[in-house]
Write a structure and sequence with these properties.
About 25% of the residues lie in helices and about 25% in strands. It has a five-stranded mixed β-sheet. A hairpin with a 2-residue loop joins strand 1 and strand 2.
Length: about 120
């Protein structure tokens, strides 16, 4: 699966988050939130290998190029709000702070790991 597009989402506080979308850009898919020490590019091999979903969206969290900066009010709540903006169907907890972000998402908790819209 090749990267189809890169989407940019305004997330408040004058910042933005970019998402690399692999596969069908408007189809429901898997959302990957890389941990604190990685970015979307580091997860490209995983995104291209996933075949069970029509699309895979890999989030470039704030502070990682080409997403916007972390702002003064940055916190775990900020990460959860950002995830809510870019969520396309399912959240996949990853290691470290990415797992905390996904698991803290109200959508994740409410549906026992299945985030449907």
């Amino acid at each position: 699966m090749e990267r189809t597009i890169q989407k940019r989402f305004p997330v408040g506080d004058g910042s933005w988050v970019t998402v690399d979308v692999y596969g069908e850009p408007d189809a429901p898919g898997l959302v990957v939130v890389p941990g604190a020490m990685s970015d979307a590019l580091g997860w490209r091999a995983v995104a291209t290998a996933v075949g069970a979903w029509p699309s895979v969206a890999v989030v470039n969290r704030r502070g990682r190029e080409p997403s916007g900066p972390m702002t003064a009010a940055y916190s775990l709540r900020t990460e959860v709000a950002d995830l809510g903006v870019v969520s396309t169907g399912s959240a996949a907890p990853g290691p470290s702070s990415a797992g905390a972000t996904a698991a803290s998402s109200p959508c994740w908790r409410r549906t026992n790991g299945r985030c449907a819209r």
